[in-house]
Amino acid sequence: MEIAVLSGKGGTGKTTLATNLAFVQKKCILIDTDVEEPNSHIFLKPKELNRKVITTEYPNVDKSKCVLCGDCGDFCRYNAILPAKNKVLVFKEMCHDCGGCKLVCKHDAIHYEKQEIGSMYFGETAYGFNIKYGDLKVGAVSGVKIIETLKSSLVKEDLIFIDSPPGTSCSTVAAVKDADYAVIVSEPTPFGVSDMKMVVEMLRNMNILFGVVINKAGLGDNEIYEYCEEENIRILGEIPFEKRFARAYANGEILSNVFDEYRNYMQNILNKISN
Amino acid sequence: MNTKEIVVISGKGGTGKTSLMASLVPFFEDAVIADCDVDAPDLKILFEGENIEEKEFIGLKRAFINQDECSRCGLCKDHCKFKAINDELEVEMESCEGCGVCEYICPNNAIQMNDSVVGKVNVSNTKYGKLIHGRLIPGEETSGKLVAQVRKKAKEIAKNENLKYILIDGSPGIGCNVISSMTGVDKAIIVIEPTLSGLHDLEKIYNLTQKFDIPVSVVLNKSDLSVNGNKGIKDYCNNYDLNIDLEVPFNPNMVKAIVNKEIPSIYDPLFFDEIKFGRFIENLKNL
């Protein structure tokens, strides 16, 4: 079963929840798809990691064959290849790796070269289950390919927790695609509610069942509870805002490992999900 | 008029970008505000105003297969690098990246690339100036392009109205939307928190700003959350010759302000005095 943990708003507690649920569940795997800024491994402390480099391709133009006809530039939708006066300019970061420029080139002047966009890591955590995460190289524009690679190599084991990126754009879609269930982590503030609404819209479009965990409860107001009631959204649990939790989190601790109540919060959420 | 652009970014989410940006606005008299966190634009919650312009944003095109003309040859599926055409030879919209290869390769002219509205750009008149905000339809791509559109609109307004500053609220992460929000700016304010996650993420976002040669100002938010965390951030900043230009201890009034839909620096001016917010702003203005 694949459970995605997402939020819309950043910093509501996705990684905290995903890592703690996995820690309490034990027999599972955690996939960190927040490849732009992955953090799960900080808490789960994998001992040894296998690394796989992820690449995309970009066009390289053979000057001896290129006649500067401009067909490649006309075709490209991403401004990644631009024939200029004397040569063809390639902006490899813009390239979406669609293969179109090579197809349209009548002079066989284009071939593709690889560029590294990041890596995938796999290993056993300090707590007896496995972690897999991606890390996007600084300067690369999109981590979607890494996220897709992370998810494609999944074996439907007992339980898969997906720590997703913030926001609601293509990276988050790639992370939660085909999940059996989604847990929205939000906070009881106007920004939390506003961003949650966008995630709810996205999940409904994708036909993914979901519930919400209200983190840092007590910090703000009741708007989020009213919203959940209006929309008939299931509240899976509430975790109170406590400075001691925040402090332990700041130091990279698994809260369920330090505080019994936190462990109980997690167990209750897991029970609610399995119903 | 040489308009200065200042962006607020973070790497890690939830460090307080929007709260900080909102707190800055009242002190920049002639500014246009741009909310470039197009996945989750929140500034409008604190800066209500009359909507004076709304434009649809067309991202990439998307492929449409006319099933009547389709000969079921499957060439489109074979060539699609994004696995956006399924076994039934239908386009899966969320995977289509609009490259046009299928349209090119189809021997029957059965495929067309159509405009896809993926979001919108709004201009509002607020008490503190014009607010440009973009919103991406949840699940869509091309957030980098929409961010560029929001910035373009902001620049246009700044030029027409002779405004000194463009204040840009960025998004978390380091991807195309963040890159698009910071290219060419005069200053990037990185808001961080004193946590291990925060430190890890600071490294990446700082590296990104250096790749684009952007001058940086660091703000340490919730600074008294953790002694170890605080030290970790300060050690990193020392190693890279970075100053922490503003340190903001955790203050429940910051959240209270947001809950009341008020600007934090207006809600609790004494606190902002204590943290020497005025000096931080003066330094920002001396770009």
Count of DSSP strands of chain A? 11
Q: What fold name stands as the CATH topology of the largest domain in chain B?
A: Rossmann fold
Total helices of chain B: the number is: 12
Gap from first CA to last CA of chain A: 13 Å
Helix content of chain A: 25-40%
Strand content of chain A: 25-35%
* Count of spatially separate domains of chain A: 2
Task: Evaluate the radius of gyration of chain B.
Answer: 22 Å
What does this structure look like?
The complex is a heterodimer of chains A (about 280) and B (about 290). Chain A is α/β, with parallel strands linked by helices. Chain A has helices at about 15-25, 40-45, 70-75, 100-105, 145-150, 170-175, 190-205, 225-230, 245-250, 255-260, 260-275; strands spanning about 1-5, 30, 50-60, 80-85, 90, 110-125, 130-135, 160-165, 180-185, 210-215, 235-240. In chain A, strands 3-6-7-2-8-1-9-10-11 form a nine-stranded mixed β-sheet, sandwiched between helices. In chain A, strands 4-5 form a two-stranded antiparallel sheet. The two termini of chain A are about 15 Å apart. With about 290 residues, chain B is an alpha/beta fold. Chain B has two domains: about 5-45 and about 125-285, Rossmann fold (3-Layer(aba) Sandwich), CATH 3.40.50.300; about 60-115, Alpha-Beta Plaits, CATH 3.30.70. Chain B has twelve helices and nine strands. In chain B, strands 3-4-5-2-6-1-7-8-9 form a nine-stranded mixed β-sheet, sandwiched between helices. Chain B is elongated, with a radius of gyration of 22 Å. Classes of the chains: A alpha/beta (about 280), B alpha/beta (about 290). At the A-B interface, helix 4, helix 6, helix 7 and helix 9 of A face helix 4, helix 6, helix 7 and helix 9 of B.
